[in-house]
Specification:
Elements (H helix, E strand, L loop, with lengths): L4 H7 L1 E2 L33 H13 L2 E7 L5 E4 L3 H7 L8 H15 L1 E9 L11 E12 L3 E8 L4 E8 L4 E4 L3 H4 L5 H19 L6 E4 L7 H20 L12 E4 L8 H16 L3 H5 L4 H27 L2 H5 L2 E6 L8 H13 L5 H8 L51
Antiparallel strand pairs: 1-4, 2-3, 2-11, 4-5, 4-8, 5-6, 6-7, 9-10
Length: 422
């Protein structure tokens, strides 16, 4: 039964205010986007961010939908719900569905765990489990309690992040499937980040602008007077270099200058390269995947080993927290779909189209939609038939009557076309 507008407004619930989410508030503006994810522990200054962002983008390309299945668990149709709108169109005021999934994955990689907070719902989740999610956001879990969590989530009504305590049963809590590789203190990713920080520190020291010179004076420096004389000589050379337009100074013919700022050989770069290759292997990615030159077999392995566990963690948690047991018994579920033709080159697409239509797997209009051509108006283009075979019109065959006898010879059915009259 359809719910009236008055009842919907009366029962609507907001996670921040526990009141009508349509209430307006006076907010202050900001020069930057306050709801944007801010990486911690220096991740934004590391080359690892590009790898994690690539994985998050690939996860966001997977279509996640609120669906209904048949008795065999096969996809039947999409459910026209607010939750499905959040997953396919708009998650909140600031993010589309794809931007929201990318935010969830990046936050999960950064913290090791992320919370999907249902901000606006049709009913109060604490009172009734039969609620529909109208808007949702990715939140950072600050504190853990036995049955609750404190989450830092962006409040779009006030314009800043706010800490709220919510029950675990109403919040989607997703742990990084690659936690042991990324977020453990001594994991491969954390070790790589520490080595990169050391390498940056060494580079800063090398390019700091210091000359690192040793001046050998023609006399022995043991007494206090000689040391003062040596300091005056050093200060004189510094003044010459600082006051010279091109950084040129002169010395005595008996003085010898040795420069020390030569590249210092260390094994930091070799360790960085070793940890990088190890991280790629543990994440199931290659350099070809990052630069877009990977072959189809490599991409399939990447989607199976890296993307699929992350997508399954998201869909399972959404199914567990945002769908009631009654809805699941009715066949409702959260499914993920990936376009199988994304990795198919144009040269092989024609052959695949012929096989799919000839074996009556896809219609001609479905193939035209993949190619980007508008659908045909021919009714045959929407039928699962093999166009390479002749399909004669269905001929009328004599059928048995009620007592199982065929019509006698010479009997003419009045509904049949007997041809032109003489």
């Amino acid at each position: 039964m359809e719910i009236s507008i008055r009842s919907r407004i009366k029962s609507a619930w907001n996670a921040f205010f526990n009141q009508d989410p349509s209430t307006s508030y006076n907010t202050n503006g900001s020069y930057y986007r306050p709801d944007r994810i801010k990486l911690s522990r220096g991740n934004e200054r590391s080359i690892v961010t590009s790898v994690l962002n690539r994985i998050a983008l690939d996860v966001a390309t997977i279509d996640i939908k609120h669906c209904k299945t048949n008795d065999e668990g096969r996809f039947k149709e999409e459910v026209p719900s607010h939750l499905n709108d959040c997953l396919t169109l708009e998650a909140n005021l600031d993010q589309t569905s794809r931007a929201f999934i990318q935010d969830v994955v990046m936050s999960m990689f950064d913290d090791g765990c992320v919370a999907i907070v249902p901000v606006d719902t049709t009913t109060n989740p604490s009172i009734s489990g039969a609620f529909d999610v109208v808007t949702m956001r990715a939140g950072k879990i600050i504190e853990w309690y036995p049955s609750q969590v404190k989450v830092s989530v962006y409040n779009e009504a006030k314009g800043y992040r706010e800490d709220i305590i919510l029950p675990k049963k109403t919040v989607g809590i997703i742990e990084n499937p690659l936690y042991a590789v990324m977020n453990e203190p001594n994991s491969t990713l954390q070790r790589l980040m520490r080595k990169l920080a050391l390498l940056d520190f060494v580079d800063e020291q090398t390019s700091s602008g210091k000359l690192d010179l040793i001046i050998q004076l023609p006399y022995v420096i043991k007494s206090e007077a000689r040391r003062n004389q040596a300091n005056e000589r050093r200060a004189e050379i510094e003044r010459q270099l600082a006051g010279s337009k091109y950084g040129i100074a002169y010395t005595d013919g008996t003085e010898k200058i040795t420069q020390l700022n030569r590249p210092v050989e260390n094994n930091l770069m070799k360790q960085v390269e070793y940890l990088t290759s190890m991280l790629y292997g543990q994440l199931g990615i290659t350099q070809d995947i990052l630069n877009g030159t990977a072959k189809e077999e490599v991409m399939l392995n990447y989607y199976a080993r890296t993307i699929e566990p992350i997508v399954s963690a998201i869909t399972d948690e959404l199914k567990r927290k945002f769908l009631t047991k009654t809805a699941r018994t009715q066949g409702q579920t959260i499914l993920a779909f990936r376009d199988p033709f994304t990795l198919v080159p144009i040269s092989n697409l024609a052959e695949l189209a012929d096989k799919f239509t000839r074996n009556e797997i896809m219609t001609s209009n479905e193939i035209r939609q993949i190619v980007g051509i508008k659908p045909s108006n021919d009714p045959k283009a929407d039928q699962l038939i093999n166009s390479n075979l002749n399909h004669p019109e269905k001929e009328s065959v004599p059928t048995q009557n009620a007592i199982g006898q065929y019509p006698p010879e010479g009997y003419v059915d009045g509904n049949q076309d007997t041809g032109p009259e003489n």
